[in-house]
thiopurine S-methyltransferase (Sula dactylatra), 196 residues
Amino acid sequence: TDTGSQKDRVVTKEEWLQKWETGNIGFHKEQGHPLLQKHLDVLLNGRSGLRIFFPLCGKAVEMKCLADMGHNVVGVEVSEQALKEFFAEHSLSYCEEPVPEISGAKKLQSTSGNISLYCCSIYDLSSSIVGKFDAVWDRGALVAVNPRDRQHYVSLMITLMEKNSSYLLVTVSYDPNKHKGPPFYVPESEIKSLFG
């Protein structure tokens, strides 16, 4: 698998926080992602009241849309600013509490209770903390994690999924020698080997 000069690239937590602080968030989609709208039936598979996971959620507007449809949404994001902007932009009240199992982590939960956003590293989560999910909307997570961390990331995702869960994944295709990422290039062959 040729991922060009990207395989050793590392984006630090500080760099991600800086992107949020400076508003350098071209990856955020104000209107929601068109591929979720197009393939929502695949993700939901006719089911209602699902637990849906948003890895590296940022302030994705789809979290509110899916919660409004009656689903329980759980997200994780290192930027507290992103999570607070999500609640503010949707005029949602929330409460904040520490996550005892994860040092320094916080959970921001809508007062309605159907949106829970964890502010921490995704690698600090486990099914014993967040439970398991019926669906995962991976809109920009696999392509954002450092290439050397992909196996760790996918292994975690698999432990968070219920047996019959749906996983909707968006990747980008381009010449990895011409762009250093993120988003990183993840070829289809690697997706197949990672997820099995």
Summary: The radius of gyration is 16 Å. The chain has seven helices and seven strands.
